[in-house]
Amino acid sequence: MHTLPVELLQLITRFIDHDDYYNLYFSYQSNIPLPPVLSLTAFNNFIKTKRYYRIRIGKLKHIGLPVLDKEYYCPEIFSYLLGLNCLEAAKMFHLISNSELLELLSRYFFYERSILAWPLYKYLNQQNIAIPGNILGNIYRNAANNNCTEILMEMVDLVSIWEKRTVFHSVCYSSAFEVFEYLLQHLEITRGRFSDILRCALNRDMRFIKKFLETCQGNVDSGTLRYTIQHVDKSCAKLLFSYPNTRKTLLDCDNNHLLTGSGKIQYVFIWDYLLENLGDPASSQNEAIFVACKENAWYLVSKLLEDPRVNPYDRNCSIFTNLCGRKQFRIFKMLYKPNLTFDFKSILLELITRNSQNTIKFLLDNNEIKLADFEPVHIKALLKSGNGTLKEQLLNIPQLLPLFEQQILEPYQIGKAQNWHTIKLSQRHFWVLVPLLDQRFNEFFDWAISEEIVTDKKLISIIIIK
């Protein structure tokens, strides 16, 4: 065996954990292996520093590790290689007893996802060691979970159909397309299974869903298809529409149900394509705009309004009943037109209950909601909501003060204190209501404290000082 100069050996030993040693060694003479003793010393140094371990494992192949004799074997090296899930450990199997290896295969690899399991299985098989039957299936699943395509292809004819089906679930959203393709051909897939097609659809690699649809010829039940198309991107949605069977299934679905489904409509860019392909465009889009408003899909609403055939007001403006939430004010303004023939009084209570102060102010400013529309039920709902901003807004309207006074003082006057327990009186809200009490303030305050309607100690102390 050729040897390297002592000076160079010292340099390599010193810089074994340094990136420069690689260039240093190979720039000298790449075909001269290092002596085993130096290999062991170098590897012990390597163990101390785990940084860049994957790169260094590859470098160690060139400095004598594969030719370690048994006298240089140490359990730490083997254990460390196992921990790294490194195939280099397979070159040490002959240094370990078969009983130890079998115990390792039975216990360690049963739980861990390790690519070393299959080489160890083959090694023990060559040694004619009896191996428990369930281990092979576990190895196969571990290989699938680690996307070990070569191992899966090598093992595929050794495992049962049940194991293949189990592994197929994992492979559907992996990167092992060759294994997926092979299993798909041998699993007699005749109809799209819910979990499989969804996994394929969620895989960023479009080859999976395309191959799956080709194999099952688009025979996917409507429930699975509806759920799947709501969780994919636009390119996958187009692919689902490109197969005659899936397209027919989608077009036969109830449009509203297809668009709502599980309620996950955040992918509104899919809707554009769906609406272009769902039966009569006008009726489908009129239906869709109601759903879009409910789901607060303002982008889709704006796209639909570009179509002159779409009439969101064809149900006597009932579309606004879906727009009472605070976050839907943007769509509300988008759909609003002056002089709509609609009684906004019917949605006023819903707007108050859902704290939609922007929408109420907008309608008041545009004279859609008249002061005469306010009734005691509206003020009562406002007092029960915790919306101080809206209370302040409406208290600035003199005509509404009598309604507030009626709702505030009537429970006190007739002794129905229980009605007050649902009214949230914070410090801010209480001071908003104080002007309504006028000369009866002290009397009212004593009653409120006695009934534990006002419990804020800071607020009580402020009022008493006042």
From TrEMBL:
<protein>
    <submittedName>
        <fullName>Uncharacterized protein</fullName>
    </submittedName>
</protein>
